[in-house]
Design goal:
Blueprint: E1 3-8, H1 15-27, E2 32-37, E3 52-54, H2 64-78, E4 82-86, H3 91-99, E5 104-108, H4 121-130, E6 136-139, H5 142-150, E7 159-161, H6 178-184, E8 191-196, H7 205-213, E9 221-226, H8 232-240, E10 248-252, H9 258-263, E11 266-269, H10 278-285, E12 290-293, H11 298-301, E13 310-311, H12 315-331, H13 333-350, H14 353-367
Parallel strand pairs: 1-2, 1-4, 2-3, 4-5, 5-6, 6-7, 8-9, 8-11, 9-10, 11-12, 12-13
Helix pairs in contact: 2-3, 7-12
């Protein structure tokens, strides 16, 4: 059974980690897996089922010169057939694997928050120097594909573009979920705006709350936030203050978000940076209209009519544009229904889980083939 070694900067239940867990589950007993988590956080371990997965202790991270030898030792001990690294936070493992001559597939899902406004020269240089030695580099968005070709100067033959995919049929249509509304104290006829994601600064949930705050008390509108993280205390303070007090519901991380999508009328994504957010695909699969910042591939993921509900991130114009979008949708149920139907059709056509699984399986199997002449 081929042995895949995954090096992840973190393993919390967010986009990249959720996808990785889903792939491991789908491959079943075709591979065995070792997952090393550089920050020691393994919350997404609960998403794994039915596959052989080991979690060895994480070598202490102490700068590249110290971490690379430690990862070399771990790789020698594990003796994997293929090394899978994820984002720049796992670059130490990529360097260690290349020094041992192990095949590497590197995955890029996006940038650190400190690169939202521009790229770090050291990271660009390291990618230019060492990504060409990998078997392939996987990117999930058209924007990352453009960056890989033009900024990292990666040869097209080394690049694999695999969009995120979901099983859209597994997501029920929005129906208000009256029972869950009652549990949360949300009026049956209120308009519910929901967002899903880890509470990191770049997700900018405060921007969402600021925009919604401009619509009350004129509109009966509530906000439901799924997720947890370092920004929770700040977000809770904003939610408890007028004019939003009693209208914002922080429900934490939910292993199954589908009942909450059912309850929503509008999905919001107000991040400073994204690539191809899985939460957006899930919301589309539930037939929800979207108000979002125009980041990453968000514009390309949505049908044309949704462009009017996207705002460039940054400052007062962004907040005002988002508030305008929320108001339009809150006041027009027919528009909500029309946009939701278009979003559902698009996700079913372009972003299937089956297609994503096929692409990753084909790539991993190709990397495991014997090298001619070796």
């Amino acid at each position: 059974m081929p042995h895949l070694f995954h090096a992840c900067p973190t393993f919390i239940p967010a986009g990249s980690e959720t996808r990785t867990a889903g792939l491991i589950n789908a491959f079943g007993d075709e591979f065995r897996h070792t997952i090393v988590v550089m920050d020691g956080r393994m919350d997404a371990r609960a998403l794994l089922s039915g596959a052989q997965v080991d979690f060895p202790p994480t070598p202490k991270k102490a700068g590249t010169l110290a971490t690379v030898p430690r990862m070399r030792a771990l790789l020698k001990s594990a003796a994997p057939d293929l090394v899978l690294t994820y984002n720049f936070g796992a670059f130490d493992t990529l360097l260690a694997a290349r020094s041992l001559g192990l095949p590497v597939i590197h995955h890029e899902d996006g940038f650190h928050p400190d690169e939202a406004g521009g790229f770090k020269r050291r990271r660009v240089w390291l990618r230019r120097a060492f990504l060409p030695g990998t078997f392939r580099v996987v990117v999930i968005s058209e924007l990352l594909k453009k960056v890989a070709l033009e900024v990292w100067r990666l040869a097209p033959r080394k690049l694999e573009f695999i969009p995120n995919g979901i099983e859209a049929e597994g997501f029920p249509a929005r129906d208000g979920n009256a029972e869950l509304r009652r549990e949360l104290g949300i009026p049956e006829r209120a308009v519910v705006v929901g967002t899903v994601g880890h509470m990191r600064p770049e997700k900018n949930v405060p921007r969402l709350l600021t925009a919604i705050g401009r619509l009350v008390p004129g509109l009966d509108i509530h906000v439901v936030v799924l997720g947890d993280g370092q920004e929770r205390e700040r977000i809770a303070a904003l939610a408890a203050a007028p004019p939003l007090a009693g209208r914002v519901h922080l429900v934490g991380y939910q292993g199954d978000p589908r009942p909450y999508y059912r309850m929503m009328d509008v999905f919001a994504l107000t991040s400073d940076t994204e690539q191809m957010p899985i939460s957006l695909l899930e919301a589309m699969a539930c037939g929800l209209p979207v108000v979002a910042t125009n980041v990453g591939d968000v514009r390309a993921m949505l049908p044309g009519e949704q462009a009017a509900f996207l705002a460039l991130p940054g400052g007062e114009p962004c907040v005002e544009a988002l508030a305008t979008g929320f108001r339009r949708l809150a006041e027009d149920p027919e528009l909500r229904a029309r946009l939701g139907a278009k979003n559902l059709g698009r996700v079913r056509t372009l972003y299937s889980k089956e297609g994503m699984l096929r692409a990753y399986g084909k790539l991993y199997r190709a990397a495991l083939l014997p090298v001619p002449g070796a």
